[in-house]
## 1
Amino acid sequence: MAEGRFTNPVVAALAGIRDFFARQQLADRYSDRDRADGKTVLVTGANSGLGFALAVEFARRGARVIMAGRSKIPEAGERVVRLAGSDLVEMRYLDLSRIDTIHLFTEELQRGGTTIDIALFNAATALPGSRKTASGQDEMFLVNYLSNVILSRLLITKGILKPGDPDTRSKVLFISSDSHRGSTGIDYGEFGRYFEYGVSKGISNYSYFKLVLNTYATELSRRINGDGIKMSINVICPGPVHSNIVKEAPWLLRMVLKGIFWIIFKSPARAARPVVYMALSEDYKDTTNAYLHMFNPKKMDPKVYDRAEGKKLWDRSMQLLREIDPQYSVYGAAGPS
Ligand SMILES: NC(=O)c1ccc[n+]([C@@H]2O[C@H](COP(=O)([O-])OP(=O)(O)OC[C@H]3O[C@@H](n4cnc5c(N)ncnc54)[C@H](OP(=O)(O)O)[C@@H]3O)[C@@H](O)[C@H]2O)c1
């Protein structure tokens, strides 16, 4: 059975203390002068927490921001307009637990002739247990992992994310968590299969699915880029964020976690800084498959870089999509390789 780094939510939250006090190697490279004028930035899960703060920050820096989410439409977008003093902000409906909405979302972008310069795959959920989606998968598996595969593949296939030279190519950032480290390898017996579980396995799955996501990001970068860089595909952990991520936890646990968040976790605006840095700084213009843990460049868990594992995950993900997505043919036969 797959196991993530943590099974106890309080222990997981307390691990944030170390991050809170960790040295931030590249923090002084963060600059208000890194602008995003003329760029189109997509943020998933943009109505709340880190995603909302990122929407504000990129709008402030001159970008056209597409806020994708399933709730608080249009209120969250209107707040970003007010806070950033920019009207280049739009909100689009996207429920990552429903595959059909991912297709509709990308079709709409394609119809509008939109291309995206920076895509921030930020949305994720932490549920207290299993929940079955309309397409039959576990909700955390779909939202935290598979929807990112679907969305990235559709955006690439439709030419919304584009390869190119350093000034024109799209940048993709997967928002992950350093808690992926130490998770077990990918369990293909469980992969995409729905079964019931409770809080401990839910916590464990959160970090485990981040390991799966990072493995996919690494394989995607390999397939798109080969030996050069055609598209910049990186991974970042923002560190502990005082956000709404525990909103579905049982009441008492939620109160405890919120207390910990309040005392030691960073505000979303602060947690957004390394993400903005990685997306806009010249330092990361020519990189792919890099990882930042806040402002600290690191390697991810070694399992993430295993080529055979990356290929296997890719093949199994596509096989699963063939089985569950009636619109599978839209991805294109060869995929983005
Ligand atoms: N909080 C931390 O300490 C921490 C640490 C490391 C990494 N991260 C990562 O940071 C990212 C942002 O999380 P956060 O802390 O800012 O939590 P958050 O406030 O709960 O934000 C998560 C976002 O994902 C969205 N989302 C969840 N399920 C969705 C679905 N089915 N369809 C579309 N959107 C959905 C949420 O929308 P709704 O409001 O509609 O639910 C919300 O906008 C996540 O990838 C998380 O794993 C967080």
## 2
Amino acid sequence: MDFVEQLKSSVDIVQVIQEYVRLRKAGANRYTGLCPFHNEKTPSFSVNTLHQRYKCFGCGAGGDILTFVMELERLSFYEALKLLAERNGIPMPKRSEYSDPETKLRAALYQMHELAEQAFRANVEGPVGAEARAYVERRGVAQATAAEFGLGYAERSGRGLVRLFEKHDFTGEQMEKSGLVLKRDDGSLYDRFRHRLMFPIQNESGKIIGFGGRALDPNEQAKYLNSPETEIYRKSYVLYNLHRAKHGIRQADRVVLVEGYMDVIGVYASGVHEVVASCGTALTSQQVQTMKRHSEKIVVNFDPDAAGANAAERSLNMLLDEGMHVRILALDGGLDPDEYCKQRGAEAYTEKLTAAKNYFYWLADRARGKFDMRTAEGRVAGFQFLLLSIQRLSDKLERLAVVNDVAGYLGVDAGPVLESFRRAASERREKTLQHAAEPVKAVERILLNLLLVNPEARTRLLPHLKNIPAVNQFTTRRIFEALFALDAAGNAVVFGNRALLASTVLADETDGEVFSLEQGEACLRAIENTQHDSERAALKAQVRAAERDGNMNEALRLSAELSRIERS
Ligand SMILES: [Zn+2]
């Protein structure tokens, strides 16, 4: 048996995927969960334990354990193989037949980062590390914690790593590409990090891919210095501490997002294990999607100063765009998370986290500070400020509920609030049309209209629609999802209030047209046909991929499945 087959047969696909995605048992040989490769609210991602394969009916992603790790960790075939082998204690064959030049470079970079971390740690324990040790102690970090987070020290000389890498026969080019070493005009090499306390940055599977360095010299201009982007460090994908935090995140079903390395360490050490930070970048959509695989709930806890609040406001928009449920914690006493944990204790901090307010209350409080809410103009301006974020909620029903809540909280009459909300929505709609963005297809429009205003259509169509994965591709899928959820909960209240719903939710999508049940059923058939087409296309692509990989048995099996579908 070749090594790839050996590995695949000895590693369980559910265990591997569960490291990245929350899965639920859905049948004898089947698990389902939210797809990590596209944004969705209802699970269309499924894992088959019998065939040891995964498949997403929403976006068409599919494959085996290796393709999963390759796609998700953005690794080459060889790297994915190595990662799975290492993680499961299976020795890799010596031949590196799977390795291409790019993979070899990346392997060198990983190795250099490991060597650098060892060197930094040896420094911090030795005589040169006295100042770094004093700083760590002053910040109240226990020795065990410092060791767990791999804190180290980059010496002053600026030659430490260069010498170490030369000793291990790395080339100048490899050193430069590691981001840990820089080149002077005269061609000589020197260390990027000098006289700094070093924080290793790991990827989701725990490999060191970069460093953050805190200046120990108070006159140093750059307080924090981070590794640059390299072949192994893509900043927009990385969250500091995620590899340690992810199990905690699953357990607590929430992410705690803080700003800096020291905050992460302080909060983690106090027993709140679900804490991460975006290191050295503004929060990106990839980072949010990464969190979302482990929990959709987040508490943002940035510094209490103006800069922290502004950063929280910017992150908020990104988080809402990705459909996260956001609460914001503003700590009292001007304390940052690290200081709060140390001064008030872990229990007080946990209580604060649990009591953190929904983001729009926090925003409303900010609006109150920014605008004079005693005057009509002030209230309108304050409300406009809030609308900017509320409009980012992709779920229109949720948007409506939030608007009502905020109006109540601000003591504003909900009527004009809703009117202003509707106006903003239609202005946005006009803008979107001008930019020729994704239009709402006629089938979606007709079906939605029927579902909202026609009880009979709802009874006849909803059960079918629920089972068609193509609905996940709709522009208006969030409204469909909300309707499915309401239907499942037997919730007739909102349906009862359909005049409001139809006018508010669909103000920008229908113009008072009335559709018949027959039209609705025709739409349903059209969607079912599209669904079959896309399933056939996905299967064909899989057949081609299997042929390309020389996996003839798999190609034959898939072809048989394809012709079975085409016959039916
Ligand atoms: Zn998908």
